Amino acid sequence: MDDFGRSSHLNEPLLAGTDDDDSDDAEFHDVHSSASSIVSSASKQQQPQLLLSNPSTSAAEAASTTSPHHHQSATTSFYGTASKLSTGALFPNTQGLVDAIPSTDEKPCLIFSDSDIYSAIAHICLLEKEAYNNSRNNSSINSDTIIFWRNAADRRQLPFHPTLFSVVHACKPLMRHEDAGMRILKKLSKGNDSNTNNSNDNLEIPVLLHENNIFREMGEEERARNGLSGLLLPRFIDESIGAKHILSGGDEDNNKNNRGGGVTSYNMNLFIQRHAALPNLFHSLLTSPSPTLRIDISTKLLNLLKMINADLQTFPSGPYLCGNQYTLADIYIFPIIERIVVVLSTYRNFWIPPSLTHLVHWYQVMCDRPAIRVATADRTEASMNTYCYEKESRNEYLLEVYECYALHEEEQFQRLNDEVGRAGVNVYREFLREEEEEGRDRMAICERGKRSSCQQCVIS
Asked: Which helix (H) or strand (E) segment is 111 a member of?
C-alpha cells in the first residue's frame, strides 16, 4: 500500500543483475546524506532574488525595435531576435505592470524551470561561468588559479547573485494560467512559427536570450532520439558567454600554452556520446507501467552507470571524466545522477551500488562545487511563487515533481492544473489526499455494514 492507501508498485524491488545485491548500501546513502547536508547548508545562506525586473531603455532603443524575421543576417539566430515588446523593454517604466526581463544587450537571460533536467544543465553552465569570474576577480590569473577553480577549492563565494546573467522562471504545467515566464515565451514565439514544424516547440524550455537573439534547446523529439549528445545551449554558453571554452578543456587566458585543449575537447565529446542514453533510461524506468519492462530498463541503466564508473578511472589525475579537467561531460550527467539518487531510490527502489566507488566519489565532488551547490539549493522565493508545487526542500521538491510520473498519472496532473492550477499549490496532491479520505470513508462504511449485516455492502 502506498501513502495514499492504494496498492502500488512504486517500491517493488528491481531484480537487475548486480554483484552488489547482497552488499550494504549504507556507504552511498552516507555520501548522499553528506551531499544533501551541503545543499541544505547552502540554502540557508541568502537566497538569490531571481525576480523579474524592468530595465531602463532609451527612446532611441525603443524606436529601433524590429520584427524577429525582418532583415536577418548571418549573425542572427535561426529563431530570430527578441523584440523589445516581448521582453518588456519597450515600456521600461511600467513598475511591474508589464512582464519584463533585464536587457539582453547587457547580459544573457535564461528562461527555465528549476526542476527540468535540460534547464539544469544550461543553468549550471552559466553558474560555472559566474563562479569562474568570481575566482578571477579574487586572485591573480595563473595556471594555479585555473586548477583552483576546476577543483572547486574556492568556496568563499557562492554565485547566489549572478552578475553575468539573469534568469526567469517558467512553469509549463500552468501554461493555461500563464505565469510571467510563460507569457514571455508566448510573446517570443509570435512570428517564429515558420522556423519550426510545431508551434508548441516554441514553448519548450530552456530558452536563452543573448544580445537579443533567441536560442532554443533542441525539441522534445530530438531529445528522445539523441539524448545528451545533441544539446545546443551548453556548447553555445561555453563558446559565447563569459570566459570562453573553459568548460571544454580550453583556457581563455592561456590558449597558446594549452596544447592539450583539443585532446580534452575530443575526450569530452566522446564521453558525452557514450553517456547520451542516461536521461532516456531514467525517464523510461520512472514512467514504464510494466514491472517486467522496468527490470530490463534497470539492468541497462545499471550497466551504463558501471560504464561511467569505469570512464572515471581513465584519467587518474583528477576526479572528473577528463581527469583534472572539469568539462561539459560532467555537467551533462550530473542532473540525471542527482535524480537517480533522489527520485529512483524512492519510487523505483533503484540506487547506485556502493561498489561504484569512483562514481560515488565523483558525485560527492560535484555536489561540493559552488555552482552545483547553488543549482541544487532549496527553492528560492521566485521558485515558490512560480511553480505548482509546495515543498521547499530540494529533495522533497524533486519527489513532488516526479510523483505523477511514477504513478503514471501525468494526464491527470495536467488536467487538474489546466482547470484549477495555481502557483504554490499542488492541486494533484490535493486530489490524492481527497481520494485517500474517500477511500477511508468507504472502508468505514463497510466495517459498519459488517457489524449490522447491511445488505448494500458486498462482503466476500
From this structure: strand 109-112
